[in-house]
């Protein structure tokens, strides 16, 4: 497909004798929300790890924004415009909400230690601007949370931690956001709110942000995705609208356990 933001072709990743991804082809367009679904162990998280350079693929290619990023290390992939969240929360609990979000802003905090030491006013101006941006982003998700920006993350409930993690990913202004099971550890209502927030932030960013979401809650997938791809044993067994994939007999057999 020409004009894809992300184009994955024939990607294979093995761990010893296990083939976690097996010749996977997948395209994602700018502004598209793709649901990545499949049974446990089907290769979804491995796909994110391969895209973000945690594990290089054993075969195949990955193009992003027209550039070949196959085998790039995670910092280079992040600089190219791909940000992610993790299945298990990965925040620095003793740090404040603001510090956790600013960790995600390495891309735009270009100044080094010497600059920050010598040009303190410039550094302070930059810090204030990023702080305001973090407050604004947080306020889109949760205005009361934006007022708690100096508080440590420790002790905050899962929904707030998820919001902070998504803000940390978004502060670098990525073109592609990878969400690995954002509903994990949350109630249905909390998940619904979080999805509303994500859609609102995306709308505010002009709708150009593409998202790939791994999610076991089918209600979430049905509601927010434009298209779904279904994995089984590392292979893509089906692709299309949620309705189409949910009705596919192969998917029912593999994913829903229906014979
Ligand atoms: N670092 C690793 N070393 C060895 N095997 C791995 C590694 N990462 C993943 N695997 C294996 O690869 C397969 C795919 O795992 P993966 O975590 O990608 O599946 P998943 O679809 O995300 O599953 P879940 O829905 O349970 O998160 C599994 O058999 C898993 O045990």
Automatic annotation (TrEMBL):
Gene3D superfamilies: P-loop containing nucleotide triphosphate hydrolases. GO terms for biological process: D-alanine transmembrane transport; L-alanine transport; L-isoleucine import across plasma membrane; L-valine import across plasma membrane. Residues 6-258 form the ABC transporter domain. The keyword Nucleotide-binding applies. Keywords: ATP-binding, Nucleotide-binding, Transport. One of its GO terms (molecular function) is L-isoleucine transmembrane transporter activity. This is ABC transporter ATP-binding protein. It comes from Telmatospirillum siberiense. The lineage of its organism: Bacteria, Pseudomonadati, Pseudomonadota, Alphaproteobacteria, Rhodospirillales.
